[in-house]
């Protein structure tokens, strides 16, 4: 559940940043909104899977360390 909440909060922050940057660069609210909807959505999904990969890597690392300790 924590991962989902973290992902949503990241998405909201990313939306605000993406909109602001495109709007300030172009002066176009519609373009800012379009980019702000598409780019963070794709990035947020990528972030979710990025976190899952890191969790899997951490779990493997922990298992390897534990096995090394047991085998001495």
List keywords for this structure.
72 residues; 2 helices; transmembrane helix; DUF2061_membrane; DUF2061 domain-containing protein; transmembrane; membrane
Description of the structure:
This is DUF2061 domain-containing protein. Keywords: Membrane, Transmembrane, Transmembrane helix. The chain crosses the membrane at residues 7-25, 31-50. It comes from Idiomarina piscisalsi. InterPro entries: DUF2061_membrane. There is one protein chain. The radius of gyration is 19 Å and the shape is rod-shaped. It has one domain. The model has no long low-confidence stretch (mean pLDDT 86). The chain contains 2 helices and no strands. Helix 1 runs antiparallel to helix 2. The chain is mostly helical and 72 residues long. 94% of the residues lie in helices and 0% in strands.
**Total count of helical runs of at least 4 residues:** 2
Rg from alpha-carbon coordinates: 19 Å
Query: Could you tell me the strand content as a percent range?
Result: under 5%
Helicity level: over 70%
Describe the main β-sheet briefly: none
Provide a compact summary of the structure.
This protein has 72 residues and is mainly alpha-helical. Helices cover 94% and strands 0% of the residues.
């Amino acid at each position: 559940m924590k991962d989902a909440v973290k992902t949503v909060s990241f998405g909201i922050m990313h939306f605000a940043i993406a909109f602001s940057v495109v709007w300030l660069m172009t002066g176009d609210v519609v373009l800012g909104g379009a980019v702000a909807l598409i780019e963070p959505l794709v990035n947020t999904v990528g972030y979710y899977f990025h976190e899952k990969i890191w969790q899997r890597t951490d779990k493997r690392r922990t298992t390897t360390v534990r096995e090394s300790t047991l085998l001495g």
